[in-house]
Design goal:
Elements: H1 25-38, H2 45-56, E1 63-64, H3 68-71, E2 76-77, H4 84-90, H5 102-117
Antiparallel strand pairs: 1-2
Helix pairs in contact: 1-5, 4-5
Length: about 130
């Protein structure tokens, strides 16, 4: 008598869909945290949010045209008020090379804060 046909092999499960982030402050912070985790940059949602609210009130187009950096021609920009040289030095691969990009601004600022203060969570005033 012929052998029974082999059982069909089930298809492997589909990989999980990549996360979808809202195009708002909450989404930008969550996306930044995922990128930071991939690059071992410390920081928490609460620490990032607290600093964003203090620095820019959550406005990704905020610019400081009056402080000492601005007087030297390098105004602080974006959610975490980063100057262009700091952004360039602490930019993280996988984010836009654009200081005005909310996620790139957060990740670069957190990378800088990690090197200077241990984490953005340790920043409680202008940095």
């Amino acid at each position: 008598e012929p052998a029974p046909a082999p059982m069909p092999v089930p298809a492997p499960p589909a990989p999980p869909a990549p996360p979808v982030y809202e195009n708002n402050l909450d989404g930008w912070i969550r996306q930044a945290l995922d990128i930071m985790a991939a690059h071992n940059i410390p920081g928490t949602y609460e620490g990032i949010h607290r600093n964003i609210i203090r620095e820019s009130s959550g406005n990704p187009q905020a610019i400081n045209l009056w402080d000492s950096n601005a007087a030297m021609g390098i105004p602080s920009k974006g959610l975490l008020q980063v100057i262009d040289p700091t952004f360039a030095a602490y930019h993280v691969e996988g984010t836009a090379f654009d200081v005005w990009d909310p996620v790139a601004n957060i990740v670069a600022a957190c990378n800088y804060a990690a090197h200077r203060y241990g984490s953005m969570d340790n920043v409680n005033s202008a940095y």
